[in-house]
Amino acid sequence: MTKNKAIVKFCVICVLVALGITLTFVSFRIPFTETRWVGSIGAIETRLGIDLRGGVLAIFDAEENEESGATGSWAQQMNATVRRLENSLNSRGFVEASVVRQGDSQIRVEVPGLQDASDLLQVIGEPAELEFRASRDGEPFITGRHISGVSIHQSPTFEWGVRVNFTNEGGIAFRNAVSQVMNDPANQHNQMFIMANGREISAPSVNDPNVGMDNTALISGGRGADGRPWTRNDAENLRTQIESGLFELRLTISESGTIPPTLGQGALTAGIIAFIVGLAFIFIFMFLLYGHAGLLSNLSMLVFSILFLLALGVTSMVQLTLPGIAGIILAMAMAVDANIIIFERIKDEFRLGKKMSVAVESGFKKSFWTIFDANITTIIAAVILYFLGTGPIQGFAITLLLGVVISMFCSLFVLRQFAKLYLYINPNNPKHLRLKQKTNLTETETPTIQVKKDRKLKGI
Fold first, then answer.
1. In what order do the strands lie in the sheet with 216-220?
2. What string of DSSP letters covers 84-123?
3. What is the phi/psi pair of residue 38, to 5°?
4. Exposure of 56 by Cβ count < 10 A (0-12 exposed, 13-18 middle, 19+ buried)?
5. Is the CB of residue 56 less than 8 Å from the CB of residue 120?
6. What CA–CA distance (Å, rounded) separates 173 from 195?
7. Cα–Cα distance measured from residue 426 to residue 6, given in angstroms and rounded to the nearest whole number
8. Which of 198, 251, 432, 453 is geometrically suited to a Cys-Cys bond with 292, CB 3.0 to 4.6 A?
9. What's the rounded Cα separation, in Å, for the pair 247 and 378?
10. Is it the case that residue 146 has pLDDT exceeding 90?
11. What is the C-alpha separation between 262 and 317, in angstroms, rounded?
């Protein structure tokens, strides 16, 4: 590769980085589509945690629900109800929601981004007594205790529906009800009726006598109030209504309210400005200490920032809180630290008399395992925190994990490619990289070099 081609490639890289930074912040409608690009920052802002944008608080009183058929001690039923609430919120993207027991018979729920308790009930569903009936006034053959799970489903023809998973007992009861419905001459449309607190929420028709053979049933083909086919939101609403009847205990809201943000938008903006100023000082420091190598590091850090923000924007598990911001800062610090380790190793190799290109290649190779080991231990810690922690702790673990993985990629691969490309532009001037060779080697260094020369002469 010639010097001019290398310069052209660097120019293209800089243009792509500038484009990436622009797409990170701007928002626009994609031409010829109804899709709107909100940028990584816009996507992250929609998932700020409760300490940054506030949310709602609800306290539920729990009491035994005879219809649920739950077994086990009171503590086991309370813990099972807490897990169901957590799973329901996490499946809808509220990974930073907090669900904890309060006293012996209360459950405290805090959810960021919602405006009032009614919004919370739309997310998890108002706790209800769920029943499947063969007629509107008939006896229930399925209750909440017969259902093990509910999920939304999209067919290959893009038709939205809801899949209901039954327990073994529930599957038997459902298949018996299917036979009863299809053989009832008074039920002309073979309908089943799904009721919540005695109110009809759906009345699907049975069109297959073998439905439920695998302990599942798919409710699809629904129509909205205006006659249009079901959308994803329609399917989500039905799933929420069905899930609201699956709690082991009967829940009633005893207290609700809003939680104001503890930082506020102004403080958050000030924090972002401070972060940008700090990053600028890092860029200046790297340039002053390492010259052109510092510029390469700064360029790789910009690539890291773009990829990191993109990952935070598209990962639904991330909901940014103060611990999450701490994870971001720690990951960026580790990315800079990895670059410093590489450059210091390059300095050591060049100081021992190696050519600049050899010193650069050797510096990356010899610093690989140091960086790899340090980051792997951090990744292991982040994984443990994610699986053993809850709420904000999981948010910290996810941001740290994403940041460390991306920083390893940028330090060990992206920066290395930038360095190789730079050597085509400046192959023989170490001053631009702040590299100096020792004029007098110590006694411990001289024999080491001589031994290598002797082995080469002997053909070893």
1. 147-154, 160-166, 216-220
2. HHHHHHHTTT-TT-EEEEETTTEEEEEEET--SHHHHHHH
3. -105, -5
4. buried
5. yes
6. 16
7. 10
8. 432
9. 38
10. no
11. 22
Q: What are 206-238's pLDDT values in tens digits?
A: 888 888 888 898 888 877 766 788 888 888 888
Tell me if 220 sits within 8 A of 211, measured CB to CB.
no
Rounded to two decimals, what is the model's pTM?
Answer: 0.64
Predicted pLDDT of residue 449: 42
Which residue matches tokens 């773009």? 306
The count of C-alpha atoms lying within 13 angstroms of the C-alpha of 355, restricted to the half-sphere facing its C-beta, is: 7
Residues in the chain: 460
Task: Enumerate the H helices of 105-191 as residue ranges.
Answer: 117-124, 168-182
Q: Which of 226, 293, 338, 246 is nearest to 435 (CA)?
A: 293
User: Minimal CA–CA distance to 214: which of 156, 150, 153, 170?
Assistant: 170
Number of other residues whose CB lies within 10 A of the CB of residue 187: 16
The CB-based long-range contact list for 280-285 (8 Å cut-off, 24+ gap) reads 282/336
Placement of tokens 């939304």 in the chain: 152
Give Dmax (Cα) for the chain.
104
E-state strands within 182-319: 193-196, 199-202, 216-220, 249-259
pLDDT band at 262 (very low <50, low <70, confident <90, very high): low
